[in-house]
């Protein structure tokens, strides 16, 4: 079970604090942006090299499960974000609400979805396939949703430009990694810790550059404590709604207990690892800090809530087996 404040969460908080006190600007900011772009390209290259085609095919037969997970991730979540707009906008700043809406458009997590499914004794092969498909499709679907919904309702973004930017900066390195897997896949599998450090390091770089630009633009002066408290409540409500809806739908549609667990954990979570690099491509630097703030908070809430839920599922299964 994740600690209340694990090492990575503490690193995120320290990075935000550093950017608040010593924000980078000018040539230093340009250098950080270059390093960040290279780190993100390396991250997606390694993800492509790590992804096993066999692991994906192992769970591909559960098409009803995958459709439900993708529907919750890319249809239900954004629909809730838009439906809650009248209630959320008076509570949040415009930038924070945009961040909540962006959060709703992101793909599911990979590592934690699979880990929690395994802990709860769910359908792990299906979780691998579903979470992986969510992230691959998210490279296209998330910028498309941003172009359609954010541009239409908020005037942010640049039409189809973000889709092409995502393809160039994220998809091409991912495809290159897939091609290179035949030569470096074994080395990547033996050095999985490297991917974790690149993953977390690239996120910290994006967070530092994003919050530096946001602080210089007056992030903390324009974000009252009331809005931050409201953001915490909004994230709790969103996660609670999706957990409840995925539980209900998976039962009503007749899925097995193992499949229900997979649907709950893959269909209710959002990826910090994909969301932060995508946000850097999709949004302007001055607003980026406010936009990734809801995602950073949601990330920690979902880890704690899903860890507790996974342990509950596991205890229920152990109790049933002991009878």
UniProtKB/TrEMBL annotation:
<dbReference type="InterPro" id="IPR016833">
    <property type="entry name" value="Put_Na-Bile_cotransptr"/>
</dbReference>
<feature type="signal peptide">
    <location>
        <begin position="1"/>
        <end position="19"/>
    </location>
</feature>
<feature type="transmembrane region" description="Helical">
    <location>
        <begin position="227"/>
        <end position="249"/>
    </location>
</feature>
<dbReference type="InterPro" id="IPR038770">
    <property type="entry name" value="Na+/solute_symporter_sf"/>
</dbReference>
<keyword id="KW-1133">Transmembrane helix</keyword>
<feature type="transmembrane region" description="Helical">
    <location>
        <begin position="278"/>
        <end position="298"/>
    </location>
</feature>
<feature type="transmembrane region" description="Helical">
    <location>
        <begin position="96"/>
        <end position="116"/>
    </location>
</feature>
<keyword id="KW-0732">Signal</keyword>
<feature type="transmembrane region" description="Helical">
    <location>
        <begin position="29"/>
        <end position="46"/>
    </location>
</feature>
<feature type="transmembrane region" description="Helical">
    <location>
        <begin position="67"/>
        <end position="84"/>
    </location>
</feature>
<keyword id="KW-0472">Membrane</keyword>
<keyword id="KW-0812">Transmembrane</keyword>
<protein>
    <submittedName>
        <fullName>Bile acid:sodium symporter</fullName>
    </submittedName>
</protein>
<feature type="transmembrane region" description="Helical">
    <location>
        <begin position="128"/>
        <end position="151"/>
    </location>
</feature>
<feature type="transmembrane region" description="Helical">
    <location>
        <begin position="201"/>
        <end position="221"/>
    </location>
</feature>
<dbReference type="Pfam" id="PF13593">
    <property type="entry name" value="SBF_like"/>
</dbReference>
């Amino acid at each position: 079970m994740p600690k209340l404040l694990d090492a990575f969460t503490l690193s995120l908080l320290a990075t935000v604090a550093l950017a608040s006190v010593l924000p980078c600007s000018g040539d230093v900011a340009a250098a950080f942006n270059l390093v960040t772009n290279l780190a993100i390209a390396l991250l997606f290259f390694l993800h492509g090299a790590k992804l096993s085609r066999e692991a994906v095919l192992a769970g591909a037969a559960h098409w009803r499960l995958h459709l439900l997970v993708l529907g919750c991730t890319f249809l239900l979540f954004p629909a809730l974000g838009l439906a809650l707009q009248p209630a959320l906008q008076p509570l949040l700043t415009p930038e924070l609400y945009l961040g909540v809406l962006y959060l709703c458009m992101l793909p599911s997590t990979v590592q934690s979805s699979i880990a929690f499914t395994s802990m709860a004794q769910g359908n792990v092969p299906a979780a691998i396939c579903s979470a992986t498909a969510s992230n691959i499709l998210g490279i296209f679907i998330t910028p498309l949703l941003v172009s359609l919904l954010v541009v239409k309702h908020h005037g942010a973004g640049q039409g189809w430009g973000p889709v092409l930017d995502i393809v160039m900066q994220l998809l091409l390195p991912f495809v290159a990694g897939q091609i290179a897997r035949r030569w470096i896949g074994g080395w990547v599998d033996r050095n999985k810790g490297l991917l974790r450090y690149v993953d977390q390091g690239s996120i910290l770089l994006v967070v530092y550059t994003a919050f530096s630009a946001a602080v210089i633009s007056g992030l903390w002066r324009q974000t009252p404590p009331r809005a931050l408290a409201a953001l915490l409540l909004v994230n709790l409500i969103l996660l609670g709604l999706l957990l409840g809806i995925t539980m209900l739908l998976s039962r009503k549609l007749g899925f097995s207990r193992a499949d229900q667990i997979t649907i709950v954990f893959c269909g209710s979570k959002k990826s910090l690892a994909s969301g932060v690099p995508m946000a850097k491509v999709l949004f302007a630097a001055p607003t980026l800090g406010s936009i990734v703030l809801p995602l950073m908070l949601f990330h920690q809430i979902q880890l704690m809530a899903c860890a507790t839920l996974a342990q509950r599922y596991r205890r229920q299964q152990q109790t049933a087996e002991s009878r």
